[in-house]
Amino acid sequence: MKDRNEELKSREALARLGGGQKQLDKQHERGKLTARERIDQLLDPGSFMEIEMFVTHQCTKFGMDKEKFYGDGVVVGSGKVSGRQVFVYSQDFTVMGGSLGKAHASKICHVMDLAIKVGAPIIGLIDSGGARIQEGLGQYGSIFFRNTMASGIVPQFCLILGPCAGGAVYSPALCDFIFMVDGLSKMHITGPNVIKAVTGEEISAEDLGGAKVHSQKSGVAHLVAKTEQECFEQVKKLLSFLPASSRETAPAAADSDDPMRLTEEIEKVIPDNPQRAYDMKKIIHSIADHNDFFEIQEDFAKNMIIGFIRLGGNSVGVIANQPLVSAGSLDIDASDKSARFIRFCDAFNIPILNLVDCPGYLPGKHQEFGGIIRHGAKTLYAYCEAVVPRVSVIVRKIYGGAMSGMAVSKLVGTDFTIALTTAEIAIMGPEGAANIIFKDEIAKAEDPKAMRVQMVNEYREKFANPYVAAEEGWIDAIIEPKDMRACLIGMFERLKGKVEVRPGKRHGSIPL
Ligand code: HXC
To answer: Residues in the chain with pLDDT < 70?
Structure first.
């Protein structure tokens, strides 16, 4: 018996060596943690239960029968993050570059199937040369299929901790959140060598698919960390805002901030002069429990802010215009960013808060040629589709078409619309409107310039406040900025039992 137990121990030790000590040392020389070290740092100590440790590939082509390693280049199982169960797979670059063959893919599919059945998040740690050249044909399809099945059922995270090349990029792309580590992660469909051969263009892997590219230009990445350790902390924090599955609601935090805390500082943030910009993030921090805001896609489409806060201990997804960037206008990237976030929140029972200060859609041929009509429609669709509790706050201005684009109306399914006393609500901005409706008066005046200023001011006095819109029934409540936090907590509390049933259908046809 003793010998048998010893055999198990020695085989386990061999499996833990992955591609061998030399390869493990090489992994460290590359500045990367090993697949198992990553799992140890991500999960609660001692909580990991590995499965399929002794799986090997069965390929005999290209001399592969002589290159077998326990685990086949991926460590899979389940464990806990802050006491909550997750399923994990971690690709082991020390075994054939973490490449994905049949057995490797089958292990990933097994934990994904379990996660879907159990109702727990899936976290993939990616460090791989992609499809295994000797036997990887078509295997990614089984993972893409499960990514799609899991979508809207359990949260899916992908951490890019090395290369992620070729068709392999599409599994992360089908997940809810992609994490990258600056300097370590590389994501691209065709690498620098292929690009050079096909187009003659020369570019480094970092400039092509590094963390900066995907967090600032492409919008592929949702969170960027300086180190792997920081990345794991981000994963833990994001998970804390989410339910384990769409069958649940997100766990409430035990240590709620004072729900009646006044937010007097907001009045100082919003300038009296409507032409002056301010930082909407200060308002988000101000209303949030413990002033804590977890921002997503911070460096992409900065005119639109998305992320999570807690109000009275409960998770809330925030969508907000940023007046500091392009005056907070709606454009192609901002539309994609908000639409996807709204749909994630709706799928996972997370209430939505819109903070609005928006002059409308960004004008220009670049926007029209790029399809702002198509992209803007995604946001409208996402709002109209969302059945979670929804509150919109008009912080300063909202003009015309952006009313639906920022869900400032019960007509698109918003439950409560609040205006701060600082709000301006009109069909158009005062300058544009005065030019049109007082065109004759301005043209005939002795001093057209002075007349224009007078007309703009008249228009602003009449319409650029919340009262005309309130009289017309657009606004549920007008509040002072200092009461914003208490009011929002009260409103979401009242919406807790919300149930909205929509007509049954296979799925809608969102204008992608
Ligand atoms: C088999 C692979 C491999 C692969 C790497 N290796 N990628 N083995 N299949 N796809 C092996 C290498 O042969 C090497 O083995 C070890 O992993 C480490 O690789 P290195 O090249 O030494 O490491 P590094 O210099 O860090 O470069 C890593 C890399 C590079 C950038 C990932 O290996 C690379 O470009 N690989 C190919 C990437 C690629 O084109 N993938 C697309 C495949 S097609 P030894 O024994 O020497 O240690 C695809 C289509 C999917 O993915 C379709 C889905 C729809």
So the answer is: none
**Does some domain include residue 207?**
yes
In total, the chain counts a number of residues equal to 512
SS3 labels along 219-235:
CCCCEEECCHHHHHHHH
Using left for φ > 0, alpha for ψ between -120 and 50, and beta otherwise, residue 56 falls in beta
- pLDDT, position 459: 87
Which candidate in 130, 166, 317, 429 is catalytic? 166
Segment holding 198, helix H or strand E: helix 192-199
Q: How many domains does the chain have?
A: 3
Active site residue 205: no
**Which atom number of ligand 1 is nearest to the Cα of residue 19?**
48
Q: What is the pTM of this model?
A: 0.95
Whether residue 434 sits in one domain with residue 299: no
Return the structure tokens found at 444.
């005939």
Task: Determine how β-strand 84-91 pairs with β-strand 74-81.
Answer: antiparallel
Q: Is the distance from CB of 83 to CB of 44 less than 8 angstroms?
A: yes
Residue whose token pair is 């994001």: 238
Do residue 141 and residue 38 come from a single domain? yes
Tokens of 2: 């003793």
> Domain check: are 302 and 374 in the same one?
yes
pLDDT at site 430: 84
Q: Looking at the domain assignment, is residue 499 inside a domain?
A: no
Which residue bears the tokens 């907070």?
A: 328
Known active-site residue 401: yes
Is 166 one of the annotated active-site residues of the chain?
A: yes
Domain span at residue 28 reads 2-240
Query: Between the CA of residue 467 and those of 43, 139, 243, 472, 491, what are the distances in Å?
Result: 53, 60, 39, 9, 21
Q: What is the pLDDT of residue 391?
A: 98
Residues sharing a CB contact under 8 Å with residue 189, sequence separation 6 or more, in sequence order: 165, 166, 167, 169
Q: 119, 152, 167, 191: which one is catalytic? A: 167
What's the CATH number where 329 sits?
3.90.226.10
Asked whether residue 393 is domain-assigned, the answer is yes
- CB burial of 313-322 (b: ≥16 within 10 Å; e: otherwise) equals ebbbbbbbbb
Q: Is residue 112 part of a domain?
A: yes
